[in-house]
Write a structure and sequence with these properties.
Elements (H helix, E strand, L loop, with lengths): L1 E9 L2 E9 L9 E9 L2 H8 L15 E9 L9 E5 L14 E4 L4 E3 L6 H23 L8 E5 L4 H12 L3 E6 L5 H7 L3 E4 L15 E6 L3 H9 L1 E9 L13 H5 L3 E4 L7 H14 L5 H4 E5 L3 H9 L6 E5 L3
Parallel strand pairs: 8-9, 8-11, 9-10, 11-12, 12-13, 14-15
Antiparallel strand pairs: 1-2, 3-4, 3-6, 3-15, 4-5, 5-7
Helix pairs in contact: 1-9, 2-3, 2-7
Amino acid sequence: MFKGILIEKDESGYRAAVQDLDEALLPEGDVTVRVSHSTLNYKDGLAITGQAPVVRRFPMVPGIDFAGVVESSTHPAYRPGDAVVLNGWGVGEVHWGGLAQTARVNGDWLVPLPQAFSAQQAMAIGTAGYTAMLCVLALERHGVTPGQGEILVTGAAGGVGSVAVAVLAKLGYTVVAATGRPGDAAYLKTLGVREIIERSVLASPGKPLGKERWAGAVDVVGSHVLANVCAGMKYRGVVTACGLAAGMDFPASVAPFILRGVTLAGIDSVMCPRAERLVAWQRLASDLDIARLGTISREIGLAEAIPLAAGLLRGEVRGRVVVDVNR
């Protein structure tokens, strides 16, 4: 038996609760992991509250990522005692996820835990931080360098934004943060932000083209914010889009793309190929100041994740939330 958050949906309604679960109920997989830490991400908040149809099979253990130690394995790459990390691959949506003390998954979904991080630190980074690193890699791949100008990070005080800011600042980029929470200004400054702008200036319908300002951008918001970010890009600037906190719509024009050669690069962390995941985690080990993780994250127990989920969706949670599943 092990403890985990279980989401159920039936005639009585939609509910999430910490329960004692039988290992016999675990889904198929060739690696069983004794989980030590998971996280609370935006998608987990949607799953736990039921505010969006994230969960597609019931009952479901949420948690789109986890870190722990292999307990048993028939996969050739892993043996008992190996420290591992998982991000995405539909866990917490169609396959039981990480907000539990035990997980059974396909070994191809796992990556070795980098020696630079403890399991707790890896989850202080989590899917949000790994996604942020994928954004940074995309900016680099498209030729954006620190000397080309300012990089805008929207939703900067959230999980993805916090890690993106910290990594970009360490790499020498001039980072401007857009946030709807002005009270987080001091926090963002400690991560390396040079300037802070109110998200509201980007949140309303704008012009097809604005003043050229940004050499690159990391956007987690979508909708009008993403459209206005694209409109404000410099010639041949690059926008990485990885979120939809404000909605799935994209009320923009083609003007930035055909008149300024702007690139809009989509970032998918869920089904990202393993080779790119390995690079992202290797780069996090070298380009993220581990000392920043204490500033970026806080830790809670398993049961605390349920009431906190709604607050996360309301934008009340700063940085990363690490879940100690044994607490």
